[in-house]
Amino acid sequence: MTEIDGLAARLRSALGPELVITDRQELRTYECDGLAHHKVVPAVVVLPQNTAQVADVVRACAEAGVPFVARGSGTGLSGGALPHADGVLIVTAQMRDILEISAGDERAVVQPGVINLQLTRASTPAGYYYAPDPSSQQICSIGGNVAENSGGAHCLKYGFTVNHVTGLEVVTPDGAVTRLGGRALDPPGYDLIGAFVGSEGTLGVATEVTVKLTRLPETVRTLLAAFPSIAEAGAATSAIIAAGVVPAAIEMMDALAIEAAEAAVACGYPAGAAAVLIVELDGPGAEVAAQFDEVVGRCEAAGAFEIRIAADDAERALFWRGRKSAFAAVGRISPDYIVQDGVIPRTALPEVLRRIDELAAANGVRVANVFHAGDGNLHPLVLFDDTNPGEADRAETTSGAIIDLCIEYGGSITGEHGVGADKAKYMPRMFGPDDLDTMQLLRCAFDPAGLANPGKIYPTPRLCGERPGRHRAGETADRDGAEVF
Amino acid sequence: MTAIDELTRPANDDDAVGGVPARLVATPRSTAEASALLAATRGLTVVVRGAGTKLDWGPPPRTLDLIIDTRHLSGIVEHAAGDLITIVRAGTPLAGIDLPDQLLALDGPAGATVGGTVATATSGPRRLHYGGVRDLLIGITVVRADGKIAKAGGKVVKNVAGYDLGKLYTGSYGTLGLITECAFRLHPRPRHALFVRAAFTPDAPARIRGAAVVPAAVEIDSASGELAVLLEGTADGVHERAVALEKLLSGDISEMSPSWWGVPPWPAGGIGVKVSVPLSAVPELAAGPDPVRGSAGTGVLYAAAAGRTEVERLRARSVRLGGHAVVLTAPPDVRDILDMWGPVPGLSLMRRVKDQFDPDHRFAPGRFVGGI
């Protein structure tokens, strides 16, 4: 019996055989996440139902020295939940209870498998919603959002997952269950919640999450502005921000992305637009009214040739349908494509887009641009046909060169999709050796054996070495889980 | 002369932390110089000092060889107005960051520096709308205990590349290394602001939340029984919301904040406590025997305690309500017999973090939770 067989047997007896998958065909269901061209079949998949079972699995992995990878809904786009061939994949999708919604505390307590949009739907009757809204919100899980520090179109105004998590229960890589924070802000000690959110499953598994709920805005107003050029749409974005307006969202699509969206969902955007902006404002009625006039004026001044204002929720949904479908829609106009995720300072937008055009032309591929213009988060879609020899390589080259552009302009290699397996190789271009070494000190504190999602984020793992904790005279005893006295 | 002699001067009578005198003081002028300093002084224990406005916060260090004073690590490195970000050196006074039309929405005592504000994660009235230090900090440069310079985050607001070490350093009380530069997101400076002042009633915070007026701050002072709400935005928007709140709370619209707004309730040299509770527990906390002042909007409030008994009563109450109470400052005789931090879930993980970042416990030994 191999080590993995022994581990699988132990997991079967701990969780019950129906929650442990070792059949090769069934395992293949889990071979990739949303980044479908990276595939690894895991050795074992477990479907824990509760925290105790997650802790059992992680403890068993720790004792056997077997790596583990946590997976929520598997919608991630950087291969963060890519399995380990000799490891255990811990799927949290069955832990999907909303444990509490407290309007009085403006908090919800959820299990990690709860779907992002479900939480918003469950909070709406009380007058609240969950603000972080990744485009995959209909299927992505809160646990995955915690791992990736997910953003979304509306994080320009409302922030990312990390700004909304106030409490976590985590299973650390030694199998211990630790509770951090809760409903109140600022628990004493290091901000381990802030460090854990966005750590892409490398510090442990979140098994319960306490999040802020946001009051539903009194008013939401949305406009769609069509521009004859990308540069003018970029200028409009800068002008809106310069006017002191913080919209809930400013999204941009270029002509190729619009073409794809039209083909897929017939969103009916203005014909002949080289770029469209979707600008959404929310808040108190009088505030929104004044700012909306300002936004309309700035779009007109920047050269918008048509501005549509959503008359109702249905029309707003139509504006958004084109944008939210854009990634998948590109499949209508290209057999293959790479979704890129990079960030630049917003003011560099027109210049960077011009250089992306040059890159595409030089490499003989097409690039459709969809982005969160308000915060400079680009999502270029590099289109190619894998049946044409060499085209996939040229697309990959283009996609990588776009990331280099983001770094050159002082931005980031990822704004919301994460580093995962896909972008670890770019980390040394954005950070120096000492930066990466220092980040991994945190990894060593949580996971000295390096079993939690190994091979992700950092291209070169740090050897943690033995660093026994020092407990000098004067240090008080551990009071983990201390009770109310 | 040795490297240490070149980089430091002997301490004088003012160079003490919590009554513990230092031997040496250094005032590095750059991150590189700070790096050389920390590399040259291995084995020496260090406390970082900004303007010293919160040097009495936290327990005193167990030992102290060297004070690193950040006064010469000062100035704005970059202000990209169009991108709504700024990068500032740690020793820069908050008051010195005066950006036209834009706002770095950090609250701290008069004179406080950027580094001290980040290291203690101060929390003031505007946190409700703008977020706290952890929400505004987007990038950080630190010098480690071994002198190595490390950066995390960056200068764009949206960025998930690598661990966000800025969060870890925020509120770490100088125990993980020397912060030398911070990048922050900025907000447009609001064009108009009004206060609505009213009597504090137990149901007022919930009614304000229910009114969807999006206040920038909701502050209460239970000793005076007052409540004040700050509204910011456009002239029309602020006025309309203020009128609605004035009616809702039977209050008065004012252009002036109350005198207690953002002012710590404890006297100089007294016992200052920071209390945080879930939002629904704020009225019960405020109804207790210990007066509190602070944000009913975020649940982070402050109290002055007369002595150890009051601290323990307040802490027991806060913990029972689902929150925490941390003693920020206390006179030496009280401090020595108090547990300033209270119960700390996750402490063993925190010790492991400290052991990794500062294996010899050079930085502020004993100043943080559990004697870290």
When the domains of chain A are counted, the total is 3
Give the strand order, joined by hyphens, for the main sheet of chain B: 17-14-16-15-19-20-18-21
Please name the two chains that share the biggest interface, counting residues whose Cβ lies under 8 Å from a Cβ on the partner chain. A-B, 110 and 101 residues
Helix content class of chain A = 25-40%
CATH domain fold name of the largest domain in chain B: Uridine Diphospho-n-acetylenolpyruvylglucosamine Reductase, domain 3
Radius of gyration of chain A: 23 Å
Ends of chain B: how far apart?
A: 34 Å
Mean pLDDT of chain A: 93
Helical proportion of chain B, percent range: 10-25%
Poorly predicted residue ranges of chain B: none
Largest sheet data of chain A:
8 strands, antiparallel
Domains of chain B, number: 3
In CATH, the topology of the largest domain in chain A is named Uridine Diphospho-n-acetylenolpyruvylglucosamine Reductase, domain 3
Give the overall silhouette of chain A. globular
Record field, number of beta strands of chain A: 19
